[in-house]
Design brief:
Length: 152
């Protein structure tokens, strides 16, 4: 009788684990697709705020560790005092790394340089950005890696 109860408990445990891991595989497949859509939405909202010079809103898209180190007032002041104004932003390529919940996004940006007496004050650049997912929310990781530019 004791052996039957022990066997039943083991069988139930195996079934529960099988269901748990079986469901987890489906969830992961759905999450990857949803995660990319969430990232695309977040990066479009972020760049819309930057283009509109709404740095108060853009600050909320920055990686939480960055926000702990840089006060919002300093971030806003730096954005408003920049010698460059972003005019257009378009995601060109998105690569998600599922293992560490990060993404590398190649952006096509049109930038207006606010420098007096500069003839070609609008340039097109490509920039790689890192984004990181924390609790199903994507955050921009500040830092620039310019890939190439063309003057316009």
């Amino acid at each position: 009788m004791v052996k039957i109860k022990a066997v039943n408990i083991i069988v139930i445990a195996v079934l529960i684990l099988g269901l748990f891991f079986g469901c987890e595989t489906q969830k992961t497949d759905i999450t990857v697709k949803d995660s990319k859509q969430l990232l695309e939405s977040r990066l479009n909202e972020y760049w819309k705020a930057v283009i509109e010079k709404n740095f108060d809103k853009a600050y909320n898209f920055e990686y939480p560790v960055f926000r702990k180190m840089v006060p919002k007032e300093n971030y806003i002041k730096a954005g408003l005092n920049s010698r460059a104004t972003y005019v257009e932003a378009e995601p060109l390529e998105i690569q998600i790394n599922e293992e560490d919940n990060t993404a590398l996004v190649k952006m096509g940006l049109t930038v207006k340089l606010n420098i007096p007496h500069l003839k070609a004050n609008t340039i097109k650049i490509q920039k790689k950005e890192k984004w990181i997912e924390v609790d199903n929310v994507w955050y921009h990781v500040p830092g620039t890696n310019m890939i190439g530019k063309e003057r316009g």
